[in-house]
Amino acid sequence: MTSGDYYVGLMSGTSADGTDAVVIEFTGGKPTLVATHFAPYSDSTRAAIQALTIAGGEELTRMGILDQALASCFAEAALRVIEEAGIDRQSVRAIGSHGQTLRHHPEGSHPFTLQIGDPNRIAELTGITTVADFRRRDMAAGGQGAPLAPGFHRAVFGRPGSALAVLNVGGIANVSLLTDVEPVLGFDTGPGNTLMDLWTQRHQQTPFDRDGVWAMTGAIDPPLMSRLLADPFFSLTPPKSTGPDYFSATWLEQHLSALTTVPAPQDVQRTLLELTAQTVAEALGADRPEQLAVCGGGAHNGALLARLASLMPGTTVTTTEPLGIHPDWVEAVCFAWLAARRLEGKSGNEPAVTGASGTRVLGAVYHA
What we know:
There is one protein chain. The protein is of the alpha/beta class. The chain has 2 domains: about 5-145 and about 330-365, Nucleotidyltransferase, domain 5 (2-Layer Sandwich); about 150-325, 2-Layer Sandwich (Nucleotidyltransferase, domain 5), CATH 3.30.420. About 35% of the residues lie in helices and about 20% in strands. It has helices at about 45-50, 60-85, 120-125, 135-140, 150-155, 195-205, 220-230, 250-255, 265-285, 300-310, 330-345, 350-355, and strands at about 5-10, 20-25, 30-40, 90-105, 110-115, 130, 165-170, 170-180, 185-190, 290-295, 315-320, 365. Strand 10, helix 10 (about 300-310) and strand 11 (about 315-320) form a beta-alpha-beta unit. Helix 2 (about 60-85) packs parallel to helix 3. It is globular, with a radius of gyration of 20 Å. About 50% of the residues are buried. The mean pLDDT is about 95.
């Protein structure tokens, strides 16, 4: 990675709230954040994404239309962040686009993962080489295709002699374990914000429970909590990954319908917050790191961070900001980094994380 190279990273996560866009420059092989931009989705676009995470009529037609609409959103976000960086688009070597995940099924005889947001259209609208489709090569090599961030976390956050965990709380939560011992480890722990956001939208008519305030007006419902924690995903050993099509509204409703007494909405929200916190703490086990650095939207949920700290005595819970990258932009920077790895022919996956049979160069290149 040559100093002076600019890359754009685009991330549209499982929360489906909009596109995070960054411009980074590599300095001494490390990414330096130059500019950031968040482009929120319209209500109709967000609804279209959420509708496609579950089975329904005319799926292929709706997916094809959304594939192109999201590509236009991604291209616009890329051009906007380049403008805010004050650089010429010809100086950007590539855009790294994660795409919008609609399905992630790493299990079974024919595992697959599906992200949309046509990179052909991004390259055409921006005039910039675009790298996308990062997950499927790892999956073809027998891996889960996710999470892909642990190698990046090690490259930018790893510190000799320290035991650090990086927790991304997007729609789904995933953790990277960074120590002096090789290899780096990481896996999905389960739902992050996805269920809390769905429940808040349904009962509070707001996109999310800001700072966990509504959740903390409720109480944990033990029967519901017991049922949720009994899901077999939580007892799986890594490698493991999942998606919002698994931990969905249908999943939650099935558990609620099995209860003798349905809890009050705020009690459900408090239980969902506890589910995220407990499954993270339990996944890290008794040998917990010295520091847990949180990124993603969940980094702004003070109630969640406080609960994590309570469940993990001896571990300092912070965001990633003290480590050098604001928590809102870590994932977008990751995909700019992965794009750079692709153009340089370097591997982007961690086989110990995904379960792939070996390291692989990830991503397909769509030339301008």
